[in-house]
Design goal:
Number of helices: 8
Helix content: 40-55%
Largest sheet: 3 strands, antiparallel
Distance between the termini: 25 Å
Low-confidence stretches: none
Strand content: 5-15%
C-alpha cells in the first residue's frame, strides 16, 4: 500500500528506520519510575518541572520538555504491560494515508521554521505492507499530555489505555503508526511548495 511521510533526512529509495530518532532514553526513566510507584512518577514530574525551569532560564529549552517524555514513557509503559501486540510509539514510523493531510501536517510542524529549514524536508510516497498500519487518535495523547502537566496520572493512564484500545475522542486527530519495513518510493516534495 502507498502512504505518505515527510522527513528532513530520508532520500528516495531508502528504507525508513522505525524509531530512528531514538527517544527511548528520554522516556525510559519515566517508565521505570511508574513501574516503581505512582508517587515515584510524580516525584520525577516535579523534578522535571524544576529542570525545565532551570533550562528555560539558561535558554536550553529544546530537549527540556519533561511532560512530552513523561507522556511517551507512560504510554510505552501501558503498551508494554497491557497491549504488547500494539505498535510502540517509540519504535515506529508515523504516516498519513492522505497526501493533503500530510501536507497540512507538514505546515503544522514546520510552518514556523525558517524557509531554508523547510526546504530540507521532503515528502514521499512510501510503500508499506498492507494491513501494517495502526490507526490511533492523537487527541487522546494530547489530552494525556495535559493530564501529565497537571500531575493527574490516573487520567493519563486511562487515556493511554483508550489510545491503545483503538478508541477515540470527540474530535479525533488520526495518526497512523507502523513498525513494518517501509520504503520511500517517490519524492513528491513539490506538493509542499505549491
Amino acid at each position: 500500500m502507498i502512504v505518505y511521510h515527510y522527513s528532513p533526512t530520508l532520500k528516495e529509495g531508502e528504507y525508513l528506520e522505525p524509531g530512528h530518532e531514538k527517544y527511548g532514553d528520554l522516556c525510559e526513566p519515566f517508565m521505570k519510575g511508574l513501574a516503581l510507584s505512582r508517587d515515584c512518577f510524580v516525584g520525577m514530574l516535579l523534578s522535571g518541572q524544576y529542570t525545565y525551569a532551570v533550562m528555560d532560564r539558561s535558554k536550553l529549552r529544546y530537549w527540556a520538555n519533561y511532560a512530552k517524555w513523561a507522556t511517551e514513557g507512560l504510554f510505552e509503559f501501558v503498551r508494554s504491560q497491557e497491549y504488547p501486540e500494539a505498535v510502540s510509539r517509540l519504535h515506529c514510523n508515523y504516516f498519513c494515508v492522505d497526501v493533503a493531510e500530510c501536507v497540512r501536517m507538514f505546515w503544522e510542524d514546520w510552518g514556523e521554521e525558517e524557509p531554508e529549514d523547510q526546504e530540507k524536508v521532503h515528502l514521499f510516497e512510501v510503500e508499506l505492507p498492507a494491513d501494517s498500519l495502526e490507526k490511533r487518535d492523537c487527541s487522546l495523547f494530547d489530552a494525556a499530555y495535559d493530564a501529565i502537566e497537571k500531575q493527574d496520572i490516573e487520567e493519563a493512564l486511562a487515556l493511554a489505555r483508550r489510545y491503545f484500545a483503538g478508541e477515540h475522542g470527540e474530535v479525533p486527530a488520526w495518526e497512523y503508526l507502523s513498525a513494518a519495513q517501509a520504503r520511500a518510493v517517490k519524492d513528491i516534495s513539490h506538493l509542499l511548495r505549491e
